[in-house]
């Protein structure tokens, strides 16, 4: 089964100056894209502005930042991942991309490819972080 890793930049929401993860990754498969299409269909059918599902990305130094309540957030035009920093009023969110960008990037990528979505940071640094984190998970 084809799997493509999406690496995103991360921003803190609700707490200026709070230390937070810089990057997150999510393994995208065809079954995830099918689920995303299903959620988008529900948004349209019921004229909803947003849907959230307990599912989420893996964040840089996740244990250090004590992240909780991982969510996939979907609107008709944007999709992102969000988690809460425990014992604060702050959240972290990945850079949002449209549901069609998920589909397009997945279709254009080879199996096991790494696709970067970010701003204001170094793509090479983000991809290096992912490769190091992934190597730690394999050992």
Summarize the structure.
This protein has helices at residues 30-45, 62-65, 99-108, 123-138; strands at residues 3-13, 23-29, 51-54, 58-59, 67-74, 79-85, 91-94, 114-117.
Write a structural description.
The protein has four helices and eight strands, in the order ββαββαβββαβα. The protein has 139 residues and is of the alpha+beta class. It has one domain. Strands 1, 2, 3, 4, 5, 6, 7 and 8 form an eight-stranded mixed beta sheet that branches. α1 runs antiparallel to α3. The chain starts with a strand and ends with a helix.
Task: Chart the SSEs and their pairings.
Elements: E1 3-13, E2 23-29, H1 30-45, E3 51-54, E4 58-59, H2 62-65, E5 67-74, E6 79-85, E7 91-94, H3 99-108, E8 114-117, H4 123-138
Parallel strand pairs: 1-8
Antiparallel strand pairs: 1-2, 1-7, 2-4, 3-5, 5-6, 6-7
The global form is: globular
Structural class: alpha+beta
Kindly report how far apart the N and C termini lie. Answer: 22 Å
Identify low-pLDDT runs. Answer: none
What number of domains? 1
Q: What is the average of the pLDDT values?
A: 88
User: Biggest sheet, in brief?
Assistant: 8 strands, mixed
SSE arrangement, N to C: EEHEEHEEEHEH
Instruction: Give me the count of strands.
Output: 8
Helix fraction, binned, reads: 25-40%
Radius of gyration: 15 Å
List keywords for this structure.
139 residues; eight-stranded mixed sheet; 8 strands; alpha+beta
